[in-house]
Write a structure and sequence with these properties.
This protein has 436 residues and is mainly alpha-helical. The chain is built from 16 helices and 2 strands. Belongs to the major facilitator superfamily. Drug:H(+) antiporter-3 (DHA3) (TC 2.A.1.21) family.
Length: 436
């Protein structure tokens, strides 16, 4: 039986929760956000250039694809161990370690490419390590933010995190293209600088990012990982999110892949193809700006259900569309209210998760998205080649509708309230009747 208890005040926040009424006066939060933003933008510039550089080295699309797959494998293999480690060690030191390794890896790739000595094997190995570093950095930073932000501010914090992701995606592509135009190696240097800035901002964080507990270190790593899975499957809303988020992400990604591949097939200008994704990114940014006020005013569960409805309707609209302007407008509509839905639910799930489970919870949620990521381009290409654009998007729209119905019908989702009620739902883990 899962026990629910009242939350306690984080030791790092005790005594000044009223004074720190605004996130913008929360120095540790701002430093962590700045560091992660730098890492995201830097990594995005490199990700833009990797396929081009890989093709230049290998001379084949297949070789470039294999190198990209190796990078994805690093992310997939590292994400679960990352959550275990981040819940067992000093998170601030782990962020510094990730920043140092990321800096070294990308500087090495930059130097090798700039001197014309980079080989396919070296590129693949470097990307494998870089992906693993990114997998460790993400849940560690998310768990650290939870430690320095009060439960009442989590909705606003999550909205800001959604916004930084949108900004990073909008900035990193053009920046990567600009740097690549100046020198093929420069995007790698951009990623190295991103990790350097992330390390500097982490050094300036003067508070701990997790409790100083010895219990997790007494438990084996495998047992700790198993305990993380037990936790996420025992909490109804997190258990629901794992399956539904995976299905919605697959449908969302497959829809955009189908649209982009269709535009490529009809010889649309590359800039116009990119504008479809830019429209979605701009919508996400706008949504992240309005998300804090929405999360404060409306219960997050019902809010998320309402906010996901335009995505479902927009997806069915795309299945009936055949003009470029319609693609852009509907991509914008599909993406506009994603940030408020994410902000409320992610904030709530973080608020009810104990401090020593934060990174593992984030890792498992991330895995649900990462695991289906390779399926979106695969299914999009297969459906498009067999049934054409309209039916291809219709299949993904049906997936999205199924995920939406499962989501809206779940009682655990519908009962999520306003941020000031989240603390009361803190999950006691391990449950009292199983605790030793």
């Amino acid at each position: 039986m899962l026990a629910i208890t009242m939350n306690t005040v984080n030791p790092s926040l005790a005594g000044h929760s009223d004074a720190a009424s605004s996130l913008w006066r929360n120095a540790p939060y701002l430093l962590l956000m700045t560091g992660k933003t730098s890492q995201l933008v830097g990594n995005g510039t490199a990700v833009f250039a990797v396929p081009l550089i890989a093709f230049g080295i290998t001379g084949s699309v297949l070789g470039s694809g294999i190198i990209g797959a190796i990078s994805e494998a690093g992310l997939l293999l590292a994400i679960l161990p990352a959550g275990v480690v981040a819940d067992r060690v000093d998170r601030r030191r782990l962020l510094l370690t990730c920043s140092a390794i990321g800096l070294i890896v990308w500087l090495s790739l930059w130097l090798a490419e700039a001197t014309g000595m980079l080989t396919a094997a070296e590129l693949a190995a470097g990307l494998l390590v870089a992906a693993a570093v990114s997998a460790f950095y993400a849940p560690t930073e998310s768990a650290g933010i939870r430690y320095v932000v009060s439960s009442e501010q989590l909705g606003t914090a999550m909205a800001a995190m959604q916004g930084r992701g949108a900004v990073a995606s909008l900035v990193s592509g053009p920046l990567g293209g600009l740097l690549y135009g100046l020198s093929r190696a420069l995007p790698f240097l951009g990623s190295a600088i991103g990790y350097l800035l992330a390390g500097v901002t982490t050094l300036l964080v003067r508070v701990p990012l997790n409790d100083r507990r010895s219990h997790e270190r007494r438990v084996g790593a495998v047992a700790s990982l198993v305990d993380g899975f037990r936790f996420v499957t025992a909490v109804p809303i997190i258990r629901t999110a794992i399956g539904v988020v995976a299905l919605l992400n697959l449908a969302f990604g497959g829809t955009f892949v189908s649209i982009n591949l269709h535009l490529v097939a009809i010889h649309t200008a590359p800039l116009l193809i990119a504008l479809v994704d830019v429209a979605a990114g701009v919508a996400m940014l706008i949504g992240s700006i309005v998300a804090p006020s929405l999360v404060k005013r409306f219960p997050s569960g019902p809010l998320a259900i309402v906010c996901l409805a335009p995505s479902v309707l927009g997806c069915f609209g795309l299945a009936l569309s055949n003009e470029y302007a319609q693609f852009v407008l509907l991509a914008f509509a599909m993406s506009l209210f994603i940030a408020p839905a994410n902000a409320g639910l992610l904030g709530y799930m973080s608020a009810i998760t104990p401090q020593n489970m934060q990174a593992r919870m984030n890792s498992v949620l991330s895995l649900s998205s990462i695991a289906v990521a390779p399926l979106a381009p695969l299914l999009g290409g297969v459906f498009l080649s067999i049934v054409g654009l309209g039916w291809s998007v219709a299949v993904f729209a049906a997936m999205m509708l199924i995920g939406f119905v499962m989501f809206a019908a779940n009682r655990a989702v519908r009962r999520v309230g306003l941020p000031d009620s989240w603390e009361a739902d803190l999950v006691e883990w391990p449950p009292a009747d199983h605790a030793s």
